[in-house]
Design goal:
The complex is a heterodimer of chains A (726) and B (163). With 726 residues, chain A is of the alpha+beta class. Chain A has three domains: 195 residues, Aldehyde oxidase/xanthine dehydrogenase, molybdopterin binding domain (Aldehyde Oxidoreductase, domain 4), CATH 3.30.365; 164 residues, Aldehyde Oxidoreductase, domain 4; 329 residues, Aldehyde oxidase/xanthine dehydrogenase, molybdopterin binding domain (Aldehyde Oxidoreductase, domain 4). In chain A, 27% of the residues lie in helices and 26% in strands. Chain A contains 17 helices and 32 strands. In chain A, strands 11-12-9-19-16-17-18 form a seven-stranded mixed beta sheet, sandwiched between helices. In chain A, helix 3 crosses helix 4. Chain B has two domains: 75 residues, Beta-grasp domain (Ubiquitin-like (UB roll)); 78 residues, DNA polymerase, domain 1. Helices cover 38% and strands 13% of the residues of chain B. Chain B contains seven helices and five strands, in the order ββαβββαααααα. In chain B, strand 3 and strand 4 form a beta hairpin. In chain B, helix 3 packs across helix 6. At the A-B interface, helix 5 and helix 16 of A face helix 1, helix 2, helix 3, helix 4 and helix 5 of B. Bound molecules: FE2/S2 (inorganic) cluster (2 copies). One FE2/S2 (inorganic) cluster (FES) sits at the interface of chains B and A. One FE2/S2 (inorganic) cluster sits at the interface of chains B and A.
Chain lengths: 726, 163
């Protein structure tokens, strides 16, 4: 395996400030794209007045990374958090390394590097002070931004010694030892979240708030049918509307993830552009997608379930034969819908094109990819594009795509020398999303008398062409319980679709965990076993199962499952009639989570989630406990929204739902009054928390509904089966 | 024709079409961007402000209808974050992305102004029009209770520990 190396650099800024930067790279760099020499202006600046500026390099979208990453640095440097300032870094992946946020990767990608940067800087500051005082380094200590020599009672603030420290040679990497976790003073404490005061006082910190003098504002009407094209429009009439400055057709480049065809209207203020849009009449060339409907997809899936699967994703043993001869078997079908991200801040982006150079202010989760896409779409050199990152009102995966960025850039290029800002309406946002794809699963399985699963067969009808899934619609051959069963098969058939799809928080897992753990529950009941015991039996001995990409730590999952059963009083509490407990677990994004839900269901199928217990193992440290708990609570409430009411349907090639009333999320009175969160700390590097708490929630609640009412939820959203919130 | 209102305690005049929603007057004419756009149809509450003390959805409020009225926005709640609710929000680290929180705070402030000791059910009813996509509802409810304790004389951390 290619090990990783760290490249650090320290330098002196005019005025006596010390700069410490670093990046991490593979020990043997890939042939292509050799990293340029490191620009030291990254990560940490220690000014003579003691103020330490840390650069939050990853996009902040509510996951708390703008606070968590600087905390790692501050810990290793022994900083006084009061003297720490955090600024959002611009996109510069040469300087910072990867700046994308998604897949809960921000923490694991930065953990080792930031600890080394911090520890190296600390050592150099100590060395500088020791040189001054003529004492051994080993006799010096650091605390709250100062170096101390306790024996002589001397101390010096970092700011005063920073200039001298930056003149020292870099220490030998072997000498640099990041702290042990028992010595942590900042990691594991809930330090005040960066931007919190700005958030509660309404400061303009979000992407939508960003403005420049002389800015014009744009709306962009895309063809309602995915992939359709604008042919003509009443542009002359639109241009005469109040305060409208420009109106033009954008041909697009045939790729809806880059630049869909449409009509741009630009005005002095956004509202005027949007008003003018009400009068817009466009002739569209709708294209072949106009025949697509959800009804058609559902009918096709039903038809495909009667035929043999098109191809195998994995086949171990002979589940067909075992099922054919089994005494106890389960044969059921599950259906889940397309859903939208519905992050609260609608898509927007600002851009300015001057003399062949493009400057963009974007709320992207993947600014690096956005830059490449804009370069391609606008025929610009990447070097001629600058991207500034702005704080965003929620990501959930929507801002992994960069369509808003390319649209804004294109519009800006048509109106050179003028900053323009594109803002979508909620309707634009919901109707032109990259949806979590729907799917259909025909599950068959068998159990023996001892409560073992003897066979598992999944016919997954999903979306794609031939054997190629559309984005985020696949199932991996290693998905649980692969490798845990001898007779196990997952086969698939794909339905072609032109509906754009993409990752939504815990992609794939957010639907698959519901199917897998609902089905395991059905098997447990068929076997007459307790659902927790049945699952422990399935996990088996604490050990690593599977290899490479498929490796799964049964010990870590057992630990969180046992803890979830313990804290929820599983099997120990007498519950009133109509109330039940359900359990689910899932491994995704390097995190192990087990959850138990207590749910009441009445005769009218009104559902109340009384409480959820969530237990997670995301490694050795919980960097910011308050934000960690917040993420888990949010994921659970998000999961409830996905279960009950959210569905995107397609009619005549376009999205039917347009706004929150048709794609409802949980409101305060529907949220569980209590969510109890526990972390099991294991000896693994810390990993992210944005995603792994979500998937187990859906089966835990569905299984609790069964325990409470005897009704199996096999279709999402549950509202389609007559359920509603109490 | 200019429309005059009292905005965060000051008389303000704007010369815009009568039907321009208050939300866009605030955000784009007056450059007060604390009030947020989420849905534009009264579903999310991100645009909540007070009209004569009552919470309203500014995205659905034509500016002409607030002529002569007192409007309070998040910028006017307390610019320094000194309102008990703002302090409670910070003490409990309520926000995730934070985008909904101006609207949440304004709904909560209107509630506390008329009900100095709300129950959970009172809070749930008052906040029913405010969506939080990040799912911070449990903390919002706790923070409203905490603000009540602070208004009754406890410091933020005392009130929090007493819970
Ligand atoms: S923007 Fe006004 S209620 Fe959503
Ligand atoms: S904190 Fe993100 S929408 Fe409420």
């Amino acid at each position: 395996m290619n090990s990783r190396r760290f490249f650090l650099r320290v330098s002196l800024l005019s005025g006596g400030a010390m700069l410490i930067g670093g990046h991490e790279a593979l020990a043997q760099p890939p042939q292509r794209g050799q990293a340029k020499p490191l620009d030291p202006n990254a990560f940490v600046k220690i000014a003579p007045d003691g103020v330490v500026t840390l650069t939050g390099k990853n996009p902040e979208m509510g996951q708390g990374i703008k606070t968590a990453l600087p905390m790692i640095l501050a810990e290793e440097l022994d900083l006084d958090w009061k003297m720490v300032r955090v600024v959002q870094g611009d996109l510069d992946e040469v300087k910072f390394g990867s700046q994308s946020a998604g897949g809960s990767r921000s923490t694991p990608n930065n953990w080792d590097l930031l600890r080394r940067v911090g520890a190296t800087a600390r050592l150099m500051l100590v060395q500088a002070a020791a040189n001054e005082w003529n004492v051994p380094v080993a006799e010096c200590s650091t605390e709250l931004g100062k170096v101390y020599h306790k024996a002589s009672g001397k101390s010096v603030a970092y700011g005063e010694i920073a200039a001298k420290a930056s003149a020292l040679p870099m220490p030998n990497p072997d000498q640099v030892k990041p702290k042990e976790s028992k010595d942590y003073k900042i990691i594991g404490k809930s330090m005040p979240t960066i931007d919190l005061p700005a958030m509660v006082t309404g400061k303009p910190i979000y992407s939508i708030d960003f403005k420049l003098p002389g800015m014009l504002f744009a709306v962009y009407e895309k063809c309602p049918v995915f992939g359709g094209k604008a042919v003509s429009a009443n542009l002359d009439e639109i241009r005469k509307m109040p305060r409208v400055t420009h109106a033009f057709i954008v041909e697009g480049n045939g790729d809806v993830s880059s630049l869909a065809s449409g009509v741009a209207i630009v005005a002095e203020k956004w509202w005027y552009a949007n008003e003018a849009r009400k009068k817009l009449r466009v002739v569209w060339e709708e294209g072949p997608t106009v025949t697509h409907t959800s009804v058609g997809y559902n009918a096709k899936a039903a038809e495909l379930f009667n035929a043999k699967p098109a191809f195998a994703i994995r086949k171990d043993g002979d589940p067909e034969a075992v099922i054919a001869s089994a005494a106890k078997k389960v044969d059921v079908k599950y259906t889940f819908p397309f859903i939208s991200h519905a992050q609260l801040e609608p898509g927007n982006c600002a851009a300015r094109y001057v003399d062949g150079k493009l400057e963009v202010w974007a709320p992207s989760q993947t600014p690096g990819r956005g830059l490449q896409m804009a370069a391609l779409a606008l025929s610009l050199k990447p070097a001629d594009i600058t991207i500034h990152q702005l704080r965003t009102g929620g990501g959930f995966g929507r801002r992994l795509a960069n369509d808003y960025l390319v649209e804004a850039s294109w519009i800006a290029k048509q109106i050179p020398n003028t900053p323009i800002k594109l803002l979508w309406t909620r309707e634009d946002d919901m109707r032109h999303d990259f949806y979590r794809p729907g799917g259909y699963q025909h599950m068959r399985g068998a159990v023996d008398d001892k409560g073992n699963i003897t066979a598992w067969h999944d016919h997954f009808v999903s979306f794609g062409e031939g054997e190629k899934f559309v984005p985020s619609s696949n199932i991996s051959p290693g998905e649980f319980p692969a490798n845990f069963l001898q007779n196990f098969a997952v086969e698939a058939t794909l339905i072609p679709t032109a509906v754009p799809t993409g990752p939504l928080r815990a992609p794939r897992s957010n639907s698959l965990a519901w199917v897998i753990h609902s089905f395991i529950d059905e098997l447990a009941y068929a076997a007459g076993k307790d659902p927790v015991q049945f699952r422990l039996n399935l996990l088996g001995e604490p050990r690593m199962v599977g290899k490479g990409m498929e490796s799964y730590d049964a010990a870590r999952m057992r630990a969180v499952l046992e803890k979830a059963a313990e804290v929820s009083g599983w099997g120990k509490r007498k519950l009133p009639k109509g109330t039940g407990l359900g359990v689910g677990f899932h491994y995704s994004h390097s995190g192990y989570f087990a959850e138990v839900a207590e749910v009441s269901v009445d005769a009218q199928k009104r559902v109340k989630v009384n409480k959820v217990w969530a237990v997670g193992d995301v490694g050795s440290e919980i960097i910011h406990p308050s934000s960690a708990k917040n993420q888990v609570e949010g994921a659970i409430i998000d999961g409830l929204s996905e279960m009950m009411n959210q569905e995107i349907t397609i009619d005549k090639g376009h999205t039917v739902q347009s706004n929150y009333h048709q794609h409802q999320m949980v409101r305060m009175k529907q949220a569980p009054p209590e969510i109890e969160v526990h972390f099991v700390k294991s000896k693994n590097s810390p990993t992210g928390l944005g995603e792994p708490p979500l998937p187990p929630l859906l089966p835990a609640v569905a299984n609790a509904i069964f325990a409470a009412s005897g009704i199996r939820v096999r279709t999402l959203p549950m509202a389609k089966e007559g359920f509603k919130w109490a | 024709m200019a429309i005059t209102m009292t905005l965060n305690g000051k008389a303000v005049s704007v010369d815009v079409p009568q039907n321009m929603p208050l939300l866009w007057v605030l955000r784009d004419e007056l450059e007060m961007c604390g009030t947020k756009f989420g849905c534009g149809i009264g579903q999310c509450g991100a645009c909540t402000v007070h009209q004569d003390g009552q919470p309203i959805r500014s995205c659905l409020t034509p500016v002409a209808s607030v002529a002569g009225k007192k409007i309070t926005t998040i910028e006017g709640l307390s610019p320094e974050g000194a309102h008990a609710l703002q302090k409670a929000w910070m003490e409990l680290d309520v926000p995730q992305c934070g985008y909904c929180q101006a609207g949440q705070l304004m709904s909560a402030a209107a509630l506390l102004a008329k009900n100095s000791n709300p129950t959970d059910a009172d809070i749930e009813n008052a906040m029913d029009g405010n969506l939080c996509r990040c799912g911070t509802y449990i903390r919002i409810k706790k923070a409203v209770h905490l603000a009540v304790r602070m208004l009754n004389g406890s410091s933020p951390s005392e009130a929090n520990n007493n819970e």
